[in-house]
Write a structure and sequence with these properties.
- The protein is an alpha+beta fold and 472 residues long.
- The strands form 3 sheets. It has a 6-stranded antiparallel sheet with strand order 3-2-1-4-6-5. Strands 11-10-9-8-12 form a 5-stranded antiparallel sheet.
- Helix 7 crosses helix 9, helix 9 packs antiparallel against helix 10 and helix 9 packs across helix 16.
- 39% of the residues are buried.
Length: 472
Amino acid sequence: MSAGAEVNDQQKREREMLVKLLRTWYGAAKNFKLYTANHPTSLESCQKMTLVLEEIFRERLEVAIQHTDGMFMVEDHLFIEESLLYYDLLKGIEDNRIGSVTFLPGITGEELTSFCLTLLRKAGDASSNGFVTDHIRAPAMLKGDDMNRKKDARVKGGTLVLRAAQVHEEWIGIADKLLSKLLEEQNIAVSEIALSLDKLIDLMHQSPQSLAVVVSLKPTVNLSAHHAVNTMISSIFIGQQLGYDVTALKMLAIAALVHDVGRHLLPSDFAGDYKLAAGDADFVRLHTRDGASFLAGVPGVPMSIVRAALEHHIGFDGSGYPELPGSQKAHPFSRIIALADFVSWRTVSESHYRKPAPMHRVIRALLRRTGSQFEPFLVKLLAPLFGLYPPGTRVRLSDGSEAVVIEPNLRNISRPAVACVAADGSMSYRWLGTLSEGAKGGFACSVTRVLGVEQDIAPFLDLLPEVTDKVA
């Protein structure tokens, strides 16, 4: 056996043992919810966990467990699906403000019993100081260490767009490197991606409108990476509207990033300005099966990500490809990514099928396909991110003036924020969601016609008002 194979076997054994540790720990915590502390079942579950730890300690001096925004990180291993399965355990750790847990050799069943009881404290218990013994270190985080997401959140809307552009650019680079490494080594650093997603998810919570501006207008510099990142951003937005926690959001984001890996497995002729001939479309459709087969062979990739690669071209009405067996339905991630993929591909693709379409036309095409190709509920969730008149759309208003849309309205897709330019060149901000007594429909002004697309809205961004966790 080669040295590389031995290392891989060792890593596999280590990961299996760490999964076993999480499973027995979860079992112990669960039993303490069901039974008393002295019940034989509770004591037995702690003893099982002690035996697993003793086996691990034969090869290491301690076991360090962290949670990063809703996911377990044990040593250097990120456990995504286990974090979902053992969510109650993770929540108990978070509720007690415990940032990390370290188990040391010599641990006893009594210590584990006390620790499991500590994790049952009610959420937000101000008296929680964590838990520290000779063999368990799980101190509570100080309040000063807690991330205050709303601190200094009041910034100019234009500044948020510039920040969004920087984050988007960073992710273009990350996606490019990720796809290259995935194809060359058939490996993916899930933990690195998950940690890098924190900034993007935070920005999406704070100002999804700023990311909508960037996605709507940023020119394509790297087709594959650009498509992957834009699909990921739209998917995260839908996931947030569905109430996904951070763990599920990150898994959905990774699935969106690699959903089109099968296209890279097509012959190189299809990567350029190749025009499809008769029969080529059927060949291109094989990218879903090829991509799923490829990802299935990547260590550590969950089946939900594999299924997204396989099913992201299956329509809500069952149309599309490939055909699923029997009554099997597409995975929820697949249905979300199918929607995000359509919006992204129609706006960035410059080769196989068509020239890029303006975002306002893509949104209308999306609405026309609601109920057939796309699930109506998901369309309803995604549409506000861009609006009926996405950023950069030049419009004529009901008072005869012309304006440029600079920000979508998450509460009303037909009434965005616009920048009006007067005859003397002066600019003014206008929120079309403003109500007015006596006005038709109750609104002071509305869009009457789309005039085209303004690619450079940077000069208008300073008109955006200050926002604090702006939602409309």
